[in-house]
Every structure is written in structure tokens, then in C-alpha cells.
Specification:
Elements lengths: L2 H23 L11 E2 L6 E2 L8 H7 L3 E11 L2 E12 L2 E10 L3 H18 L18 H16 L1
Antiparallel strand pairs: 1-2, 3-4, 4-5
Length: 157
């Protein structure tokens, strides 16, 4: 190996080593959360404060109940509609029901698959965490679901 090539290889290895060392020493992206502290005068325990996106804060944003809305999306066959009914308790989805409005057999197939798989994706989750992209092979129906979800959020507040 020629000296100039050998020098380039060593410089490259040294540079990669330095980059790896610097990356390993970099601070993490999430700050450490202080542990719960105890107030010695009252015996009370203080926990770290939550953020605005915590489940407790989203629970107060929405009224419990059952809400329904229609959402539309565009398929190769034109504009389609899907009906969504959600039951909320403390900001969490406890039940979901899909009403199919197919305009052709292909839409019927995909909306049926979506309806069969959506509960596993949304039940038990906070309504603010939901953003469905593809369920049971149906990716277009999710656009209508998300549109209906936005309407339900507005209605439930």
C-alpha cells in the first residue's frame, strides 16, 4: 500500500472514531425527569408535573358519550363516504362502529375490511393519539375515518 493511500485510510478511520466518540458523549434528546420528592414538613409526595399532551389533560377536553360523523375520501372510483361512531370515556375510545356507504363492489370490500380491523387500532387509546393510516389492507378508507374523527373531536369538546 502506498504511503499516501495508507495515510488517507488512517485519517478516515480516525475521523470515524472521533465522530463515534462525540456522538456517544452527546446529551440525550429527552431531559431526565426528576424523581418524586417528599416534603419533610407535611409528609406529602410531589410528583413531576405533566405536559399538555398527557392523557389526563385530554380527558378533560372531551365529554363522555357516543358521537358519529361521516368522512369522505377519494378512491379510483370517485368520492366515497364512511360513517364513524365512537364512544368516549375520559378521552379514551371505548367502542367504534363503522357504517359502510359503498358505491361499488370494490369499495364494499375495502370498507368491510376496514370495519373489521379498526377496533383493534383505536379502542383503548386516547382520541388525541389517533391517526389511522392503513387498516386491514385499506389505506384510502382511513382518510375518511380521520376526517370523521376530526368532526367528532370538535363535537365532543
Amino acid at each position: 500500500m502506498r504511503p499516501s493511500v495508507r495515510k488517507s485510510v488512517f485519517v478516515g478511520i480516525a475521523g470515524l472514531t472521533l465522530a463515534g466518540t462525540v456522538a456517544g458523549c452527546a446529551p440525550s434528546a429527552t431531559p431526565a425527569v426528576p424523581a418524586a420528592t417528599s416534603d419533610s414538613t407535611s409528609g406529602a409526595t410531589t410528583a413531576p408535573s405533566g405536559t399538555a399532551s398527557s392523557p389526563a389533560s385530554s380527558a378533560s377536553l372531551y365529554q363522555d358519550g357516543t358521537y358519529s360523523a361521516d368522512g369522505t375520501y377519494v378512491s379510483p372510483n370517485g368520492t366515497e363516504t364512511v360513517g364513524v361512531e365512537l364512544t368516549l370515556a375520559a378521552g379514551t375510545v371505548t367502542a367504534v362502529n363503522i357504517t359502510q356507504h359503498p358505491s361499488n363492489p370494490n369499495t364494499r370490500k375495502f370498507q368491510g375490511e376496514f370495519a373489521g380491523g379498526i377496533a383493534a387500532q383505536v379502542v383503548g387509546k386516547s382520541i388525541d393519539e389517533l391517526n389511522v393510516s392503513k387498516v386491514a389492507g385499506s389505506s384510502l378508507t382511513s382518510g375518511g375515518f380521520n376526517q370523521a374523527l376530526d368532526k367528532i373531536k370538535s363535537e365532543a369538546q
